[in-house]
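seq as requested:
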Amino acid sequence: MKHRILRSRKRIALVAHDNKKPDLIEWATYNKEALARHELLATGTTGRLLEEELDRPVTKLLSGPLGGDQQIGAQIAEGRIDILVFFWDPMEAQPHDPDIKALLRVAVTWNIPFACDRATADFLLTSPLFQEDYTCLLPDYSAYVRRKI
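struct tokens:
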């Protein structure tokens, strides 16, 4: 089975819908020391807010509705993102909902850890596996790629 190594210094994508941005910022601030050991990427406004609050560089992509979710999905598929923390708002319809579903599908497709709420993000960040190299098994999609349409 194929695999890839998630190094001890993880590449973490942070995303939040508008109503969840304060929650993500508060979570990141609370976990500032732990996150300082990792590379952070974020969509548009979330990235700017995180950079200001954490006083450290955050790679900022486009805003989610403008393609940032798709940029993160592409980086997951390319093996350039190790962890996804996406505080999404289940109570608010999002105009770019298909992009959000595609992003979550890509995270599952490539077997990367992801959290969609604070409790799961806390469990993920405090796992002993988070601080060390981790061998991530990749599903074998060769039969899917070879299928005839």
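The chain has one domain: 10-131.
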